[in-house]
Specification:
It is a single chain. The chain is of the alpha/beta class. The chain has three helices and eleven strands, in the order E-E-E-H-E-E-E-E-E-H-E-E-H-E. The strands form two sheets. Strands 1, 2, 3, 4, 5, 6, 7 and 9 form an eight-stranded mixed sheet that branches. It has a three-stranded parallel sheet with strand order 8-10-11. Helix 3 links the parallel strand 10 and strand 11.
């Protein structure tokens, strides 16, 4: 039986936000990321969406205690989708890999009422900078849809539960890339 792993493509890339065992950089072919809102949460968050022309960087990690049910509860707003054959990784042994994605019928676009959180973006980009360098963080921006949604600047009072303090150069990187894509930053809603 293959070891169970999952592919993380957002905050799970930032190893400071979790203690999942045996994390390794990996790539998922046939998917991209998108900022989406769902009726299950008040703000927009990342999901994976099928795209046969895309490949995204991320992190695989072992499912704790081989317990998919416990991980499914943590990722309750998502469906678990088999992805073993779509993931490239460096593990030398056979693994079963899944990716978590919001079901199509539960997704809607982010909006002023359901914005992106700067504290969430900071955590994700920090993870990509540390795992994949600035080129990998740039690929994150390029392979993620939904940047036209409003971004609530909550850095002073982070709303994202796993927020992390950024180093000054990480903050500059995030701010520069958001400026490059003409992101709409709002201070209040």
């Amino acid at each position: 039986m293959a070891d169970p792993y999952f592919f993380g493509y957002g905050s799970l890339v930032n190893l400071a936000t979790h203690d999942f065992p045996d994390p390794h950089p990996a790539q998922l072919k046939g998917w991209r990321r998108a900022w989406r809102h769902t009726d299950l949460r008040p703000v927009a968050f990342l999901t994976a969406i099928p795209d046969p022309t895309s490949e995204i960087d991320g992190m695989i990690a072992h499912v704790p205690r081989n317990d998919w049910d416990a991980l499914d509860q943590r990722e309750w707003a998502y469906d678990r989708v088999p992805a073993t054959k779509a993931v490239t990784h460096s593990l030398p042994h056979e693994v079963e890999i899944a990716v978590y994605a919001v079901p199509d019928d539960r997704q809607s676009t982010a909006s002023r009422r359901h914005p992106l959180l700067m504290s969430y973006i900071d955590v994700v980009v920090q993870g990509y900078l540390r795992a994949f360098g600035s080129e990998g963080a740039d690929r994150f921006f390029a392979t993620t849809d939904g940047w036209d949604a409003p971004i609530l600047n909550d850095r002073a009072e982070p709303r994202y539960p796993r927020h992390q303090a950024l180093k000054p150069d990480e903050t500059c990187f995030v701010d520069d890339r958001l400026k490059r894509i003409a992101a709409q930053i709002v201070k209040t809603l």
